[in-house]
Amino acid sequence: MDSSNSDKQNNNQSVNEDPAGVDNEFCPGFKDVDAFVKYGLGTVVAATKASASLPQVGDEYDLYRSFPGFQEFCETQGDGLLHCMSQIMHHHGCRAHMRDRNKLTGLEERFDLVVDSNDVILEKVGILLDDAAGVNRSQQPVMPAGFQPPKIVVSSWNRKGGDSGSGRSSETFRLLQAKNVTRPQLKFREKVDNSNTPFTPKIFVKPNAIKPLPSCRSQRPEDLDVPAALADFIHQQRTQEHVEDMFAHPYQYELDHLALPEHLLSKPEPQMYKPLAETKCSFIDNLEDLVAVNEKLAKTSEFAVDLEDFLLNHVSFLGITCLMQISTRDEDFIIDTLELRSELYILNEAFTDPAIVKVFHGADSDIEWLQKDLGLYIVNMFDTHQASRTLNLGRHSLDHLLKLFCNVDSDKRYQLADWRIRPLPDEMFQYARADTHYLLYVYDRLRVDLWEVGNGQPALLQMVWHKSKDISLKKYMKPLFTEDSYMDLLRKQKKAFNTQQLTAFRLLYGWRDKLARQEDESTGYVLPNHMMIKISDILPKEPQGIIACCNPVPPLVRQQVNELHLLVQQAREMPLLKVRHAWGHAMHWFFLQPEIPLFGPHDTSRVSESDIPSFTPDSKIYLKSIVNINYVDTVKDPGHLTVAQQKACRVVESFQNPFRMYLPSNDIHISKNAKFDPSTKIYELPGITSECCNCAPASFSE
Ligand code: AMP
Ligand code: MN
Ligand code: ZN
Q1: 320-327, strands of its sheet edge to edge
Q2: Euclidean distance between CA atoms 188 and 95, whole angstroms
Q3: Ligand 1 within 6 A of 308 CB?
Q4: What are the pLDDT digits (tens) for 445-479?
Q5: Residue 278 buriedness (CB in 10 A; 0-12 / 13-18 / 19+)
Q6: Quick check: CB of 405 below 6 Å from ligand 1?
Q7: Where is this chain compositionally biased, Low complexity type (predicted)?
Q8: Which of 65, 346, 472, 576 is deepest in the core (most CB within 10 A)?
Q9: Is 356 touching ligand 1 by the criterion CB < 6 Å?
Q10: Domain spans of the chain, in order of start
């Protein structure tokens, strides 16, 4: 202990040299974290040394033990230590009955308790360090100042909360309150389809068609005057006949054959926007008004469109389009797409009319949301974001264009707002309106610039129209769950998981996907990526350990912690083998099929390095030949397979590999969620939340 004392004195001296610093001490006696850590480390080293110099287990210890004085001293010190440890564990919310001899069978269980608690504490340290570094900052939706959200709270995870124990239900209630807004999906006439099936276009009438809608799409089977079972049958027959048509872009043909009128490829005369104060702005939330809007739009030659969606902060599995803003040269419309979700398809009349230009800013997501929620398509679009890029304006945000051309200062404060709120607060209403009000003028100005930068030739204009058309051709793809979709996410992690961790990750991924679809919540709401990775990494032995991996604890994790615990336990039963994740794709089936007894049953709860099965060079070649992979990580130096392992290998060898379809091809693998930007040739992940750790490029090659 001497060395640490002198450390502390040195430390105090340095503090005293700077009397002004005393007030700013990190904690009493330490001027900063470094000084504290240095002192702490010294103490730990001294304690370790002292412990190592105690009489060793065996003869030496037994001899000392025979002296009553020594025995008594050991017991009081031991009790003191256990008490101290209990208190620390208790403080961290771990199981802490270190001193309760009735509950413990012995040293081994105490050791487990310490290991678990260390896990929990280190995890907390990790989380706090992440927080301090700004990594896991959770994004809260923005609310206008003074906004009082409605108190009605409806959520499916409320169901179980009500009948559970009193302590827990109050906690659930508190969490519910934090959600604040009524779930609009409960009012949708047509239920949201989160099923694990591909998206089929929601279109049953096709205005402005050159090529008619395939017969399989033109009538909703439920609209036919036949019994439900027969309608189902007809629907199925049609589906089988026209699988390709079913999934095709309904306006593919029209877009492919879109011919731009001459005047759109020449220099325009900019038409100034009307001042906000002189422009009528209507909120449209009923069919009658919507029909009127549609009639007005049909008479225009161009109008601007924008959408507000709310996926952030986890309110639905697929996100919800909450608002549509439309501006003509004379009027602004704010359309409630929650209220009119099933009626908005009527706007296809103007939206797909090739003679009417639809101006968007950055339409990539809008095009998908229009298809997904409203069954709307765009024929003849001009994307001002694409124009800005083509002109190399440096910054391509709408704010920048508004400042540049209209000298309007907009702030994007409400971009991530909860757009489900009704009645829409005035600030949000005005904000939404500004997104399209100036856009037609911006469109004019951009076209003038494109013309001029292009030396009075239409090439640049043509390029923008072309890029915009490509965006209109995008098809909405529903995220589909497959047996190995978890690998997409895993690849982005730098971690090399062992078989147990990989199994846990796979099971948690499946659990999360299923629950998110079922409860209509985003996967990030059910269990954020970084928490899922932490749980898989640590494999907590206790439900409490799972909770400790999550900060804040997602409500569904708290509710289903026992189910999660079972999944983690199941993972812990896997034979332990370090897996390099790059080939986990090929190998996961092999090691994770419990029915293939490659290494025989193991008690893997306490596997030491020496227990981990290893491969001989021969077994490497053997594995290569059956799963067609490139390399295998041997955990230790090659040893010999045990008789049981050899036997198991021979059994496996006799099988044909039934999993070839899961093996990686030599192609580049791209996440299904990645969006391809044809101009940069870069795949962009839908970067909605910060939870997507280490977002590496989505591409991956073996
Ligand atoms: P905007 O076109 O800028 O009005 O944005 C439309 C919608 O896109 C917003 O309502 C948000 O739901 C979503 N959005 C825009 N920017 C972001 C962002 N940085 N992160 C996540 N969502 C965004
Ligand atoms: Mn937008
Ligand atoms: Zn907007």
Answers
A1: 280-284, 331-336, 320-327, 302-310, 357-360, 381-383
A2: 46
A3: yes
A4: 999 999 999 999 999 999 999 999 999 999 999 99
A5: exposed
A6: no
A7: 1-14
A8: 472
A9: no
A10: 18-48, 61-128, 200-248, 258-472, 485-572, 579-683
